[in-house]
Structure formats: C-alpha cells, structure tokens
Amino acid sequence: MNVKSIRSRPRIVFVKVKEALSRSGLPDLDYALNPYMGCWHSCIYCYARIYTWYREAAENWGEVIVVKENITSILRREVKYKARGVVGVGTITDAYQPVEAVYKLTRKSLEILFSAKFHASIQTKNPLILRDLDLLVENKNLVDVGFTITTLDSQVAKIIEPRAPPPKARAKALETIASHGVETWVFMGPIIPGYNDDDASIEELVRLAKETNSIFYYDKLRVKDFMLKGDHVLRSSALKSKYYNWNKLFSKIEHYCRIYNVKCLPGMEYKQEKPSTTLDKFLKRK
Ligand code: SF4
C-alpha cells in the first residue's frame, strides 16, 4: 500500500482491486462503479460509510480517500465479457469529489463504459462533472446525471454537507448539463426533520426540477446507528424522525410536483438496506 497526501488533507491511500463493476442492489441499476472509497464531501448523514469495506476510510469518513488505482484496466477487461447494462457511477462515494480532478478515474471509466455501450447513471454533488461535459454530450443516449441537492439554503447545507460544493453551484451545473440535452434528475435526500422539510425548501427544488426538465426524486432520513451515538448533529432529528409524519410530508411533495407538473418519485424505495440497529432497538436498550 502506497500512502501519499494532497495538501494536508485528505489522506490518500492507493489500492488495487479485483473487480470494477459490482452487482448493484438497486433494481434500476445493474452494476455499481466506485473509483474511490471514502468521500471528502463529508456529509453528516452519509450512509456510504456503512457500505465501505475499507475500514480506515469508513471510520474516518471524509479524512481518508481510497483511490482504486487499477480500476480502469480491470474495467477495460470486464466490459468485454459482462452483459451490457446500467452502471450507477458513485453509489458509495462521490465520483466527482476533488480527488477526481487529479486522478481522472471517473472520466477514464466513463470513456470505457461508453465505448462498450454501457449506460452510466451518475449521481454527484460536484460541478467538477462539467469538466466532462463533452463526453456527456457526445454520449447523451448512454447517460443520465443526477445532482443531490438537499436544500438551496447554503447555511443549512454547510451544516449537513460541510465540504460539498454550495447547492447553488450544483443547481447551476445541473442547468448547464440539462441545457445540453442530457437527461437529468434532482435528488432531494435525505429530508431531515427540522433542516429541509419546510415548504420553501421543497418548492424551490421542485421548481428547479421543472426548469431543468429533470425528474425529482426524494427520500427521507434513514436512521443509522452512527447518528445516535454521542453528540452527533443529527441525533435529535434521528430520534424525532421515528414519530414524524412522513406521509404528510410526501403528500406535500406530491402536491408541489402536481403544481409544477414535475415527475416525482421516491428515490430509495427499492434500496436493499443492510440490517442495522434500528431506532426501535436503540430505544429498547435504553
Ligand atoms: S457526497 Fe455522497 S458519498 Fe460523499 S459524503 Fe456526501 S452523501 Fe456521502
């Protein structure tokens, strides 16, 4: 293992992998491709740490980024014998987090996928994706791009997504990509009681979906063990979410989607979650 660092943080670790395309548990995706593990954006709600096998990155979320240095050579081999399908790019990391500017593994992977006629479904929070606009436009029949925007309020975003690019920058990047005819979507998730469940937040994002001709996906906060530990910022929201009237919130979202005539779908409805200590179990322990 070779350890280097970019500026002072994060710590960059290089690993060799045996597989590039892994089977995805999401019904809309056949495969998942994650050129990195860990994510500099450090969203406080990030579930990806639970699915990250590289322990140091999982336990020091945002501080350690693992670069799969041989992923493109493995991918080049795999696309020759694996059945064509839809590849989720960045399912447990943001494939356009800052390290991508240096290593370009996401761009190189996309080039390989497109030349083999695989479809890429990219989800990101980072306008760095605009660097690859040429590639996206050239292959617009093989790609869709989703931006996760939980709120357009930069103050709220700073609390819950401390190192991710400001939401307005994400919205602008989404507009640019959509204006080039690439299929786009907005992912409003997680919706966290007390942070981004107000009417204004929902309406603004539905309107953005309308303006960019994007599908609007939404998802509620899914309570995980790490949120309940110590003084985690989301602890009270996580506890509150147990009694929260989610159906009322979803009706409100559907209401705005009807007003703006936007296609709205629950984003994570089919996600297969790993068993985790639920809030129920937590409360029983108390
Ligand atoms: S951008 Fe995505 S993968 Fe990265 S920390 Fe945030 S939620 Fe996790």
What are the salient characteristics of this protein?
2 domains, binds iron/sulfur cluster, 8-stranded mixed β-sheet, alpha/beta, disordered N terminus, 4-stranded mixed β-sheet, 286 residues, disordered C terminus, 12 helices, 19% strand, 12 strands, TIM Barrel
What features would you describe in this structure?
- There is one protein chain.
- With 286 residues, this protein is of the alpha/beta class.
- The chain has two domains: 103 residues, no CATH class; 147 residues, Alpha-Beta Barrel (TIM Barrel).
- The chain has twelve helices and twelve strands.
- It has an eight-stranded mixed β-sheet with strand order 3-4-7-8-9-10-11-12, with helices on one face. Strands 1-2-6-5 form a four-stranded mixed β-sheet.
- β3 and β4 form a beta hairpin.
- The longest helix is centred in the C-terminal third of the chain and has 15 residues.
- The chain is globular.
- The termini are far apart.
- 42% of the residues are buried.
- The N terminus and C terminus are likely disordered.
- The site of iron/sulfur cluster has 10 residues, from loops.
- Iron/sulfur cluster binds next to loops.
Amino- and carboxy-terminal Cα gap: 42 Å
Mean pLDDT: 91
Order of strands across the widest beta sheet? 3-4-7-8-9-10-11-12
Q: Tell me the number of helical segments per DSSP (H or I, 4 or more residues long).
A: 12
**What small molecules does this complex bind?**
iron/sulfur cluster
Structural class: alpha/beta
From the alpha carbons, calculate the radius of gyration and give it in angstroms.
19 Å
Q: Please estimate the helix content.
A: 25-40%
- The parts where pLDDT drops under 50 for at least 5 residues are 1-7, 270-286
Main sheet: strands, sense, barrel: 8 strands, mixed
What is the overall shape? Answer: globular
What is the CATH top level name of the largest domain?
Alpha Beta
Question: Can you identify the CATH superfamily of the largest domain?
Answer: Aldolase class I
CATH topology of the largest domain: TIM Barrel
CATH architecture descriptor text of the largest domain: Alpha-Beta Barrel
Strand content: 15-25%
